[in-house]
Amino acid sequence: MNELILFVLKSTILSGILCTWYMLALKNKRLHNYNRFFLLFTLYASVQVPLLDFNWSPVYERAPVIFTSTKMLLHTFNGADGITPVTQHISTTDINWKAIAIEIAALVSLSLLATMLTRIAWILRIGKQYPLTVTHGITLVQTDLPKAPFSFMNRIFWRDSISPETDSGRMILRHELTHIKQKHTYDKLACQLLTCIFWMNPFYWIIQKELGMVHEFIADEQAIVNNSDGIQEEEYTMAFAKMLLQVHNPTGYLNPEHQFFSSPIKRRLTMLQTNKTVRASVLRRMALLPLVVGSILIFSFNPRERSTAIIKSDKKIMLVVDAGHGGADEGCHSGSLMEKELNLKVAKRIKELAPEYNIDVQLTRSNDKRLTLEERVAFVNKLHPDDFISIHVDDRPGKVPLLIRHSMKGIEEAIPAAKFIRIHKSYIVHTGQVTAIRKNSLFLGNLELPVTEPYKKYLQLLTNKKI
């Protein structure tokens, strides 16, 4: 979830940087094909660059560290795993606001996608309702729609009231043919698809609008350049401009009452009269390179402290992890957060990480049940582990250990001496569970445990049995 939010944030910032450059340096300049490429590249880069992950020379370095069995687990066990020490009162809630926000965003995206698909379906349906004429792979659909003429994919939707034999009709036809030949529909579909999915990115809406205008500029320019009426380009440009005004306002293209200055027609007319400056256009094109390189350095390279590779143990290590408290024994509290629950989450996370380090983790408890100290010790003695840790969380300010590592000596001192004896560096047994004793071992039922020389003297406590 956090990765998705970070991706959207990076994508928005990157598209904002490139879009700002377009608005300042490229908008309303006669670099139509380049501007088309730039806007499409902005969409592609804003999606692709945040997904890249290049590691380069780190800013900070440290020497590799060799970890003991417990430290190997703690090396990657940190706040990123969703578990942090409790130092103050924490109030918890069952409402996951991030998940709700993402669900709302997804619903809006689905709504926008449905609207887009509905419009496409309407266009395709129109193509089946009116007569068609196919020429050189291009379909001409004769309609009476007031929105016509317009083009979609390889189809031109023509309005019957416009004669293709008139000057304005031929201009419009060449204009729409340019949209088809240069596949402008694919640009718009890709742009609208991204805008529907990442609708929260305001720059995608700007890019969608500007890409549509660039398409019109390209089609206008090609309609003039490719005219076959034997008219000089300057005269044809003026005729084309006049046609735009007449189509936009049939009652009088110079009518002062018309809201001319708020219309995109103004930009199209201005562009027809704009001269291209070769030197300036080259400089604007070259400026893209440092802009792209800088964006990649910022958003895809991750200068960070070099982390050492996972260090596995040469041999399989068994580690017993004891999640403190449990059941009716809730431990300390912080708001509605209980120590027993946090201890169990930490223990399960350690067990999840352990296989990567060649460590076999055994949990004294895997659910919310209460274990006595004797039961915990018996569990450890039964497994003969290489190491043992007990997890507790303290609610005292300034003293918040996350993991408490116990030695066998520490356990021995904590349990009742009258009931337990030490028989081995790794074993402490309950005297009441001993069923038989031999010279170098004893039995707990069918389980035989070794008794080493330093601890044989403690067996004298078992007065009812002899070595």
Structure description:
The chain is α+β, with helices and mostly antiparallel strands and 467 residues long. It has three domains: 2-54 and 163-299, no CATH class; 66-92 and 312-406, Aminopeptidase, CATH 3.40.630; 417-467, no CATH class. The protein is rod-shaped. The two termini are 63 Å apart. It is built from 14 helices and 15 strands. Helix 1 runs antiparallel to helix 11.
How much strand content do the residues show?
5-15%
End-to-end gap: 63 Å
Number of strands: 15
What is the ordering of alpha helices and beta strands? HHHHEEEEHHHHHHHEEEHEHEEHEEEEE
How many domains, as an integer?
Answer: 3
Strand order of the largest sheet: 1-2-4-3
Q: How helical, in percent, are the residues?
A: 40-55%
Which whole number gives the mean pLDDT? 75
Give start-end ranges of low-pLDDT stretches: 57-93, 249-263
- Most strands sheet: 4 strands, mixed
* Oligomer state of the chains in this structure: single chain
